[in-house]
């Protein structure tokens, strides 16, 4: 007979202590600092900021440390903290055309105004384990000291470094503008009296959802889920044949317009990744053949997330563009309802919570069904013997 197992407060407190012991690990190994996580686990920090909806590298690094590297748990911690913060105001729309570029590539045009800027990327690495990273901390410290001394003796940057720095300080015309000049790609102008978008952090998504709401949802969505959805569109489940119009990584100025001032002021810079995907469109009775767009934007260096987001954004526009909707990635309710990592994780992990009463009811039901089945089988056998 199954019975409920009772726990207590002391057991939970012991679990907390064990969790802290697990997080800290071997005490003979130096503890990771928040600064180390911020500087050396940048891509993880950027993902937590994006899906946690908070641009704060220190808080994201703290969440990663507290969660022992579990990024979904870290996102949960950051969102929970975000919910306690007051809303002081809203920024002006970002003009990504003014981005100070660190990386800028296009798969559609080889020769771009402003040039291709490779920037930091794993795209050209061989994906071989670098065993030099196993060097002891003493070796690393001495190596860092040597590098620091060497840097102090350098008074002038190399020509390549100067070029990279110059690229950072310049902006470049967007690739989409090249297609706009020939009227070959759809235009998405801001409508007159553009209403403020629905804030998903305050109001839940409602269907049918407009594009602004969908993009908010995708920006906060789990990268792995969006990547799978984007992959499905490329495998023929949304009739999508995309090209990377442009990927941009750089910094943008954040501006607000306080009511008491009546003019715009800058409050700082943030790093973002933007992706515009170009897709074929055969046209319709009202529209001539042209290219359409999918859009993705994420905090920090989040290239894979921005690309997946732009692919899924385009797929979700199928009904708007008069395309047949028959694949999951084209169904807004399916995608938006399952993309959030916290909701998905919570719903799956709630199965760990006590379900003793429910299970006892199911257990009794199955026993009764089996008993009834056995009785019916015995009756059938008796009938056959008498026949």
Question: Key features?
Answer:
3 domains, four-stranded antiparallel beta sheet, disordered N terminus, 387 residues, alpha+beta
Radius of gyration: 27 Å
Calculate the terminal CA-CA distance, rounded to whole Å: 40 Å
Helix content: 40-55%
Shape: globular
Q: Structural class from helices and strands?
A: alpha+beta
Counting H and I runs of at least 4 residues, what is the number of helices?
A: 14
- Mean pLDDT, rounded to whole units? 87
Unreliable residue stretches: 1-5, 155-160
Note the beta-strand portion. 5-15%
Report the sheet with the most strands, covering strand number, pairing sense and barrel closure: 4 strands, antiparallel
SSE arrangement, N to C: HHHHHEHHHHHEEEHHHH
Overall description:
The protein is of the alpha+beta class. It folds into three domains: 9-82, no CATH class; 96-130 and 158-345, no CATH class; 355-387. The chain is built from 14 helices and four strands. Strand 2 (242-256) and strand 3 form a beta hairpin. The model is unreliable at 1-5 and 155-160 (pLDDT under 50).
